[in-house]
Amino acid sequence: MNVLVTGAAGMIGRKLVARLAGDGVLGSEPISLLVLADLVEPEQTEGAGSEVETVAADLADDGVAMQLVASRPGVIFHLAAVVSGEAERDFDKGYRVNVDGLRRLLEAIRALGDGYRPRLVFASSIAVFGAPLPDVIGDDQYQAPLTSYGTQKAIGELLLSDYTRRGFLDGVGIRLPTICVRPGRPNAAASGFFSSIIREPLSGEEAVLPVPDDLRHWHASPRAAVGFLLRAATIDGDALGHRRCLTMPGVSVTVGEQIAALREVAGDDAVGLIRREPDEEVLRIVEGWPRAFDARRAIELGFRAESDFEEIVRVHVEDELGGRIARTQA
Amino acid sequence: MNVLVTGAAGMIGRKLVARLAGDGVLGSEPISLLVLADLVEPEQTEGAGSEVETVAADLADDGVAMQLVASRPGVIFHLAAVVSGEAERDFDKGYRVNVDGLRRLLEAIRALGDGYRPRLVFASSIAVFGAPLPDVIGDDQYQAPLTSYGTQKAIGELLLSDYTRRGFLDGVGIRLPTICVRPGRPNAAASGFFSSIIREPLSGEEAVLPVPDDLRHWHASPRAAVGFLLRAATIDGDALGHRRCLTMPGVSVTVGEQIAALREVAGDDAVGLIRREPDEEVLRIVEGWPRAFDARRAIELGFRAESDFEEIVRVHVEDELGGRIARTQA
């Protein structure tokens, strides 16, 4: 089977590709060819028995989508997206990539025809939901996004379901929690602090916390996200019925509980590196975000996240720090 | 103020235009120019003091949307759409008209800029909801359409809300009930019988009923639909908050209750003209449709439908039959 990954150079994309290339199989099927696409050339990856092809191109450009599906991949992971902050800053770019890029991909699949009906795994987001929200959000929550990114993902979900219903492809959309702990350097995203208050102290560096300790949010690790994608690739589509998009499980914790988990794993010295600097602007943005979900459908369908935030911290230490925690003087 | 109506040659469009041209005002503002657009040339209408301009063009074609908003209409009624059955038969045409046509309109408004921020009234549909559905559907129902038409309308709602949130326009989307009694000849739509079992007997003609008497559905008259559009044009947008789309009120009745209302208005002879011819295919389609709504938000915002189905029948007799009912031998 051939496999296509769009957005392969992104954080989740790279982790997914490493897993696919390492396994050499997806479900029970050997991967013959792994096509990795992104705006920038994805890293060359050594495939365990799979041929690997990299493509640097914009999915929304003429002909690119047709080129990407030419090998008739049996599974397509569509991760390419303009992220939340950028989609809000650059209205046109967000629609171009997040809506038109997806439509180009869907149309390219449909155009191949001849019985071609791949599994398309679409990375959606809990940003499809917007305030006012219940404390715990069920699988039947009204989709009222409050960002352009959330709007674009909600449109993607609708398209995925309709193309699936019409028999053009076999889509599964998964709404990812906030991914925590994100590896790498701090970024300017409003959600950045959720990761940095764990990541920086574990590396012996200071981190800034702009919101109160009682702010609650919904998390899963990068490792869990890769697990969701693999599960979505291999699940029986008929089990989903007409509703092809699912809220993924996650861990609902307050910032205070995140910090307590950090203390369990790395001690008081690490916690001492968190500096509280309230920021009304950041608070205003994240206050409207979901706090917890009852992701019953996904759990019944075998999707698994961490069971608590301490596990999320330990996953970061294992996967990113080689099991080592920096020792510091607080 | 200038007013633009797209889909002006359609059934609701013609009734809306007749009302606007007759009133010469919208809310408290005199209408200077009424621009009527459709694929086919809309009928010339005598405006009470308003200039009237008709345009036969496809909104999804290059330049058409810019032409339509060139007069900077303060209110735009966007009714142009490929209907349910056609959007299901012709996948490309449905997306072209119902999604791309709307996007062209939104982008043309945005491109004018310079403080231009018109009220855009978007005719959506209860088809944005799909089975499984509760008996009475609330304002927070998950949008899971089961047709391409419903998908396209749900995408339209999302776009309308996002463009409004971004300040490019001031959108209000209204989800119309099934319009009953539709004037004119029987058509091939699966929903056609809801109207024909009333309309044909009132004109002394036979009608076919393909579903059981206990099938329940959600209706409002063409007159009520025009009232919804006018209300949506003049309502205070801030009262809607971020959720710019509303389910309109209506009347929830079984087919048996529709027939009882016909009997009240036109007697047993009229009812005798209904011939029961069960059709499994039609039943399968309409079974998944909404049966009733709790349209609380819209009612609080001053939207009004008929209070029972007998009123819907009487509205048809007044508006379409000049108050006269055909006398027949049963």
What does this structure look like?
Two copies of one chain form a homodimer. With 330 residues, chain A is of the alpha/beta class. Chain A has helices at 11-23, 64-69, 84-89, 91-112, 148-165, 192-202, 222-234, 255-271, 280-287, 296-300, 309-320; strands spanning 2-6, 25-26, 29-30, 33-38, 51-56, 75-78, 119-125, 170-176, 178-179, 207-209, 216-220, 245-247, 251-254, 274-276. Chain A has a domain at 2-177 and 220-247: Rossmann fold, CATH 3.40.50.720. In chain A, 40% of the residues lie in helices and 18% in strands. In chain A, strands 5-4-1-6-7-8-12 form a seven-stranded parallel β-sheet, with helices on both faces. Chain A has a three-stranded mixed β-sheet with strand order 9-11-13. Chain A has a two-stranded antiparallel ribbon with strand order 2-3. In chain A, strand 7 (119-125), helix 5 and strand 8 (170-176) form a beta-alpha-beta unit. The model of chain A has no long low-confidence stretch (mean pLDDT 94).
Amount of beta strand of chain A: 15-25%
What does the overall shape of chain A look like?
Answer: globular
Q: By helix and strand content of chain A, what is the structural category?
A: alpha/beta
CATH architectural arrangement of the domain at 2-177 and 220-247 in chain A: 3-Layer(aba) Sandwich
Kindly identify the CATH topology of the domain at 2-177 and 220-247 in chain A: Rossmann fold
Which percent range fits the helix content of chain A?
Answer: 25-40%
Terminal CA distance of chain A: 52 Å
